[in-house]
């Protein structure tokens, strides 16, 4: 199954400082900014695009339960995950299962932009957090 880079997720301590850097230094454009209070997300999120490449800046809103807060405590700020777009998330998950790669079922969700996503188990990805996603409600160009 074909996979293309969808976006990079970057864990940050200060959303304001990071937005300023991505816009003023990298020349990016802010596409959206919102808060997700969903369990397992709990972050302020800014989506910035630089020359067609999207980055999600993720700042924890709950330092006790946010996975972004845990990530920053364990590894520091920086790249949190790499997201790959697939044509059909269900088919991609079946393919992963056949290949012996586990997914984290509790991360399966649809975000506010209609992106359906799931994270692969980092134990099966050499420690890298990888997201698979599709956009089932988006009409192709």
Descriptive report:
With 141 residues, the chain is of the alpha+beta class. It has a single domain (3-134), classed as 2,3-Dihydroxybiphenyl 1,2-Dioxygenase, domain 1 (Roll), CATH 3.10.180.10. It contains three helices and eight strands, in the order βαβββαβαβββ. The chain has an eight-stranded mixed β-sheet with strand order 2-3-4-1-5-8-7-6. A hairpin with a 6-residue loop joins β2 (29-36) and β3. The longest helix has 11 residues, at 15-25. The radius of gyration is 15 Å and the shape is globular. The two termini are 20 Å apart.
In short:
With 141 residues, the chain is α+β, with helices and mostly antiparallel strands. It has three helices and eight strands, in the order E-H-E-E-E-H-E-H-E-E-E.
Features:
single chain, 141 residues, alpha+beta, 2,3-Dihydroxybiphenyl 1,2-Dioxygenase, domain 1, eight-stranded mixed β-sheet, 21% helix, globular, MMCE/EMCE_epimerase, MeMalonyl-CoA_epimerase
CATH third-level topology: 2,3-Dihydroxybiphenyl 1,2-Dioxygenase, domain 1
CATH class reads Alpha Beta
Largest sheet: 8 strands, mixed
Proportion of residues in β-strands:
35-45%
Structural class: alpha+beta
What's the gyration radius in Å? 15 Å
Query: Between the first and last Cα atoms, what is the distance in angstroms?
Result: 20 Å
Q: Number of helical runs?
A: 3
Strand order, largest beta sheet:
2-3-4-1-5-8-7-6
Report the count of strand segments: 8
Write the topology of this structure:
Layout (H helix, E strand, L loop, with lengths): L2 E9 L3 H11 L3 E8 L6 E8 L2 E8 L6 H9 L2 E9 L2 H10 L4 E8 L5 E5 L9 E5 L7
Parallel strand pairs: 1-4, 5-8
Antiparallel strand pairs: 1-5, 2-3, 3-4, 6-7, 7-8
